[in-house]
Automatic annotation (TrEMBL):
Source organism, top-level taxon: Bacteria
Record-level Gene Ontology MF annotations: lipopolysaccharide transmembrane transporter activity
Coiled-coil ranges from the UniProt annotation: none
Any one annotated GO CC term: plasma membrane
InterPro entries in alphabetical order: LipoPS_assembly_LptC-rel, LptC
Identification of the protein by name: LPS export ABC transporter periplasmic protein LptC
Originating organism: Aquifex aeolicus
Length: 176
């Protein structure tokens, strides 16, 4: 009986010690995560699902993940699954609450338009994942086969039904 009592006392003591150690380590981890300024991942791929279906693949050389509501991606690349739509930019900032991706520097879009490959280059764009629209800002240049399009700002819908140049439309055709 004494042995059983001694064993119970030891067991309760060890449980108390482990509880204190565990709480201390959790507290230190929480303090450390608040002090850490940036969480950086390199060579990463993010997958975005909607209704249990893969919608987008995002790639980047580096991603800053300190704030889960604002993910910064350097050397950004994206691919829309099920559609021929590819996007690249020097930098992207993904606002997860808004479901918008702000693209900066050498923004390139490749997609199919009327069955033909279409390429656009612009300095800034916003991908609105809710509205399923890409808006380009500032001067852009687009190429479709032998046609060269230039303008100031554009709107493109993910389904490819709308591609609208906002203003200053210029079209030139290479006859070669």
């Amino acid at each position: 009986m004494r042995l059983l009592l001694l064993f119970t006392i030891l067991l309760v003591s060890f449980a108390g010690i482990f509880e204190v150690l565990y709480l201390n380590s959790v507290e230190k981890l929480e303090k450390g995560s608040h002090e850490e300024k940036e969480k950086i991942a390199k060579g990463i791929e993010l997958l975005l699902f909607a209704d249990e279906k893969l919608e987008w693949k995002f790639y980047g050389k580096t991603m800053i993940l300190s704030n889960p509501k604002e993910i910064t991606i350097e050397n950004f690349n994206a691919e829309k699954i099920g559609k021929y739509l590819k996007i690249s930019a020097k930098k992207a900032v993904f606002y997860t609450d808004e479901k918008k991706i702000y693209l900066y520097g050498d923004v390139n879009l490749k997609f199919l338009r009327r069955g033909k490959s279409f390429f656009i280059k612009v300095s800034k764009a916003i991908v609105d994942l809710k509205a399923k629209v890409i808006r380009g800002y500032g001067l852009f240049e687009g190429r479709e086969g032998n046609k060269l399009l230039k303008g100031n700002g554009f709107i493109y819908t993910f389904d490819g039904k709308i591609f609208k140049i906002e203003k200053n439309v210029q079209v030139s055709i290479n006859s070669n």
